[in-house]
Write a structure and sequence with these properties.
globular
Length: about 160
């Protein structure tokens, strides 16, 4: 991956964090279940702090700001809102491994000065996966522990 591809990957990751924050915030608003609502809110916070950590890496990028991909966001929300909690977690699991791999590739290319921020990017995706795995296994009590740990490190 060349420097241009790395920069584009970081920019896309940053856009993904903005999208993820909006997605989880809207899921929190859409549910009547207070436990699920609280969990979606913590996931939105994870996306926000991760995005904030990598934002300086895209500060000089000339791409237009994210138009929040309203169509894809609305489609994803419609799908997730209709799913029972466990199925939503299973669906989430299906997209996490490719993202982890993509972010690990970015980490391998990151300049030394950017490694800490890109490591947070990798770790936040792993924390999401651990969260979903624990939720699927029925461990709703400690499922957010890995997520909160990354939030604390990212601040």
């Amino acid at each position: 991956m060349g420097t241009d591809a790395y920069r584009e990957g970081i920019f896309q990751a940053w856009q993904g964090e903005l999208w993820g924050k909006a997605f989880f915030e809207r899921l929190a608003v859409a549910t009547d279940d207070s436990d699920e609502q609280a969990k979606w809110q913590v996931l939105a916070e994870l996306e926000e702090v991760t995005g904030n950590r990598i934002a300086p890496l895209v500060a000089d990028t000339t791409h237009p700001p994210l138009a929040s991909s309203h169509r894809s966001l609305d489609s994803a929300l419609e799908l997730y809102e209709a799913l029972p909690w466990r199925e939503a977690m299973e669906r989430m699991m299906g997209i996490l491994d490719p993202a982890i791999e993509r972010f690990r590739d970015l980490l391998a290319q990151a300049p030394a000065a950017e490694r800490d921020a890109v490591q947070i990017l990798v770790d936040h995706e792993i924390a999401l996966k651990l969260f979903a795995e624990r939720e699927i296994a029925g461990d709703g009590v400690s499922s957010l522990d890995p997520v909160r740990a990354v939030i604390n490190r990212a601040r």
